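Bug report

Summary: structure tokens for Winged helix-turn-helix transcriptional regulator differ between web form and batch submission.
Environment: batch mode, default settings.
Steps: 1) Submit the sequence below via batch. 2) Compare with the web form result.

Sequence submitted:
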Amino acid sequence: MRSYGDPCGVARGLDVIGERWALLVVRDLLLGPKRFNDLHAGLPGVSPNVLTQRLRDLTEHGVVQRRDLPPPTRVRLYELTDWGRALEPLVLYLGRWGSQTAAAPDGLLGVDSILLSIKAGFDPTRAAYLHGIYELHIDADTYFIEVTDDSLHISRDSAPTPPHATLTTDLDTLRAICDHQITLAAALDSGSLNLGGDEHAKQGLTDLLLAPFMPSPQPTNTP
């Protein structure tokens, strides 16, 4: 990788994650480990060769590490190191900042981006209302969300204890809801989305899911 040759911390950080696709690889590993093919599927536009190089660079810099599952699985996973996970606040802040750009490209949001948007938009003052453990089944993947007194945790895994509410859907339906192409009620009526749990927990889960994608209130003019 090329270096800026500048001892400033900003330049040194960009020496590590400034190459094209590098920070998006970090983004897609924030919720948990992934196989190479899953990473590649979640980053449309990146070639296998470029992704391989970015993973190699990030591994050499100590941001990403490889983990091989034992037989009979024989699967190689890529995951963030502790130093790599320390990039999460930067990625979430950059996501909030970047979402204010004038126009969005025509590409589709990945599931990692949708769930990280939930984390980026989390309001700790509402934690008491949203407090609980939730499980999401999106296509073949499972995620769990835990809201505590002042924080929100999301990971690509099953909930460690029975969840208070569950949501089951496919990524296309989830995208359509977040993009306001269909309503949650319409998705429920069609059967493309299912909710389980008690009513309070289901309401908390849907509020948590939809909050980052609600239109910002427009300022009112006062006479």
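Above is the batch result. After comparison, the two runs are identical; trailing whitespace caused the diff. The beta strands are 34-35, 64-68, 76-80, 132-138, 141-147, 152-155, 165-169, 193-197. Residues 99 and 117 are 10 Å apart (CA to CA).
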